[in-house]
Amino acid sequence: MIYMGMLCAKSLYILLYWKNLSQLAGTSIGSLYASAGYSSLGVFFGYILAIFLFVKLRIKRISFLKVADYGIPFTFLVQAFIKVGCLAGGCCYGKPTDLPWGVIFPGQTEVPVHPTQLYSMLYLLFVFFIGRYIYKKGPPVGITFFGSIFLYSVLRYLNELLRVDSVNMIGTITLAQIAVIATACMSGAALIIVLLTRRRT
Description:
2 strands; 201 residues
């Protein structure tokens, strides 16, 4: 999960910032990956892909959703710690604010801005604890996985409204917003299906 998360995070970052990176580091694969940063959405999708490959490549197959139910809360816990690094590095910050907890990042901002990295860390921790709480209650298989993703997607969307460094795709709508809207719709639909069709285990 760690290696797949890092690989997908760097790959998505390269796709998003290809033009700038190719000018700075050239176009060789090695130089691009060495110079690239990390995309938190890439980490998230990398974790899910790693779980999928783990269950599918085993000689004795096991349920993807059973493993994902257990593992998904911990993916959000890991991302919460990653956001501490974002806060320390001064990336992924938000819009200017007059709130007392606004932060000035030296070399990045001249006025206090929303510490969206801190907001991310807090809601990721919240999703982790909620996910673990749901899992321990023994709900139908898939509830913890889809429920955690849905909650994360909603909170991530709200946080994205404060971000200023996201890649715009349609007007002011960012790629991250499109991605989390899609994951919210898919996970929400899957959650409803599970609730309607599966008995409590």
